[in-house]
Amino acid sequence: MKYRLSIESFDKSFAVKEDGRKLTHYSGNRFKLFPFIANNNSVPVYDLGSIVGRYISQVEKINPQQITVEELTARLMEDTEIAPGAEELFQQVVKSNCFDRNGKIRSNNLRMITQIPCEESSARKVADYLVDVLGDEEILKISVDRATAILEEQSNVLEKFIISKLDPKPLPPRDTATYQRITNALHKKYEEDFEYVLGSRNRISDYLIPLLEFYYFTYTAQAILQLNRFLAGDRDNCIPLYFCLDWEKTSLNRLCYTQGWGMLQEKTKSIFAHAMVHKILNQTEEDYGPVDYITLDELAQEEGEDHRIAEEIKVLTERYRNAIPDCPKMKELRRQYSAKSETAAEVRFLFESVRTQFENTSRNRVYTAYADKFSEYVKKYLKRRGRSGMMLNLTEETLIFLTKVCIKDQEMMRLNDVFNEFELRGVYLDNISKEQVMRYYEKLNLIEKKSDSGDAQYVKRIL
Description:
8 strands, single chain, mainly alpha
């Protein structure tokens, strides 16, 4: 089956009026890119503690049944001999061990974590997004199943008894399309880190939520950077994005300024335009796809396809532009030549048309609201640096977390290899920051030197 764009599909998806002079922008029904909602009234997701239960249950393919203190107590009492008059005391024991003061179940182990409710629509979208874009679901499920079995063996009698009464059901098929993974650069490292964090009860408690939060940021950041390369993207490698350390001094000529948050922030502003362009590029005959920029470049490289694909995109581009009569600036745009291909030039013209009309009409509100959902979340990784403005920031806590997941159970790792592992997870440091990290490790007595060379310095495992 060939990739062929469909005018009929375009008109239906964008609700184009009969005269072709008006359309409606909806995101995600043909190509789901990000879990953000283009609505000022929707609340950004800051704390991924609210999604961890849904995330684990989606990976494990189970549908937890919510349970109250009273319901769980009643189930336990069915198989327990309780002395007359001790029923209330037994319920208090169950409540104190399994529920918090708000009546929500505690996350004592993986099975109980799946019981954590994820009630907000925006939070459920983020959970589903992370399931789709981070790692291979089957590999992640094996890690969850293995960890669940080990941790249940280590549980005390009461915990095992409680777990046996939770009674999850099989997960019904999802009724929405999956999110498309734009970059593969992080997913192998995520699989390794996920397995490591699930390897002990303490690591689950300390690092499962930080792991999800960290990869939510780094995957989304890398996806945004790849999108802005259009058809010249590289799906398998990270694009350098520089951080600085919480305690170090910075300047305007550092990479953490020139290739850090400022660069990413500027590209984040146009992600709704990318979402719309991908929706247009997936208005195909017989639901061919999904197709992103990199896939489209591969299709255009096939013999005789570049011109044909470019012409089909041009038809939908003109149909889109004709349906936007209230943006003079968009009408002033002209197609630019691309040395790469006709398709690359046409995609860029389509993108500039979409971006320009959003930025110069009353539709700017939803366009900005969509990007703000990510910009607001990123604040937990930012720090204001005087006239340098906001920069991506590694706190001591995040640095310790990164070091632990990079070294894992090895006794030690070469310092240069630690920095390489950081980069494989989307965190880049310039030489000044690397020097600061080394001094920090020395302060914690984690450095073992065989010489002053970075290749002969080792970082010991953090216990």
